[in-house]
Write a structure and sequence with these properties.
single chain, 301 residues, alpha/beta, TIM Barrel, eight-stranded parallel β-barrel, globular
């Protein structure tokens, strides 16, 4: 049985289908930590990618990664190696990237071209070694539900299984009306599923006003009935909260049926969560045995 919690390195023989299957078989034990690429690392001379991996992340998600000017602060690349490839070499972790499926009809679009979810950029991501792309919307960046669905369809039609697509809502993106079930209703959820997203992104319980464990549990069940994996997220700066809050969110997300558990990129400041919170969350969803094993094992094994 392939399980992501038992893997310490990434090799070319392990394809996207294998990754999705291993996440299923890990039974809700997969930990995803998000970092902001351009920001100086918390430890200055050790990258935040390495720090997240050291505290138990199975997957690292890159925010503000520009495919045209690819930089991950603290990561030094070998000749002909992208920062993503270098990160995988140094940590043995799978790497994903946030891109914004902007709606060109909206005036507030301020996202640089290299961070938009265009087909050209997806091709560059694949070439640079990314395992998956996350399509969601940060506040005031010009992303709509329609543009997200359109982007999913275009990527899956063009690239098939060459890259895993994760899509959905992490938070309300500044919309005061997006409370509880108004954030993403069943109709919108099914449009994302039917568009072909491999993994559906939903906020973790108690991270967005009105988002209860019951609401997310119902949505996850709906996704699972259509054979889709779900990643619950902490994208509201609560990733920098105290450990008891982190542990409560983790347990509620696990109870609701989450397959992947995301923790956001803000701790003492932007860039990475409080590193200990990756460990605290991980211990809740998979215990000390698997958490410490992930933290301790050399990628050279």
């Amino acid at each position: 049985m392939k399980r992501i919690i038992d893997r310490f390195g990434v090799n070319d023989a392990f394809n996207n289908e294998d990754l999705l299957e291993s996440i299923k078989k890990a039974e809700g034990r997969t930990m995803v930590s998000e970092i902001i690429c351009p920001i100086t690392p918390l430890l200055y001379d050790v990258s935040n990618v390495e720090l997240a991996a050291a505290f138990g992340a199975d997957i690292v998600l890159l925010n503000m990664y520009d495919v045209n000017m690819p930089i991950i602060s603290g990561i030094d690349c070998l000749p002909d190696e992208s920062p993503i490839q270098a990160s995988k070499r140094l940590t043995g972790r799978f790497i994903g990237v946030n891109l914004e499926p902007v709606d060109e009809s909206l005036e507030q679009n301020s996202i640089p071209p290299g961070r938009q979810a265009t087909l050209e950029n997806i091709q560059k991501l694949i070439h640079q070694g990314a395992d998956f792309v996350v399509l969601t919307g940060n506040p005031k960046v010009g992303v709509s539900h329609a543009s997200m669905v359109k982007s999913i369809k275009e990527i899956k039609d063009k690239f098939k299984d060459r890259i895993i697509v994760v899509a959905g809502r992490m938070h309300a993106s500044g919309d005061i009306n997006a409370i509880g079930r108004n954030l993403i209703d069943s109709k919108k959820l099914n449009e994302i599923i039917d568009a072909g997203s491999d993994i559906i992104l939903l906020p973790a319980p108690a991270t967005v006003p009105g988002i209860s464990r019951e609401i997310i549990s119902d949505m996850i069940q709906e996704c699972h009935l259509k054979n889709k994996l779900v990643m619950t997220t902490i994208g509201t700066s609560q990733e920098g909260a105290d450990k008891d809050t982190i542990k409560r969110i983790a347990l509620m997300a696990k109870e609701a049926g989450s397959d992947l558990h995301h923790i956001g990129d803000c701790g003492y400041g932007p860039g990475i969560t409080v590193p200990e919170n990756i460990m605290h969350y991980s211990i809740v969803i998979k215990g000390r045995r698997h958490t410490y094993r992930k933290m301790a094992a050399s990628i050279n094994r």
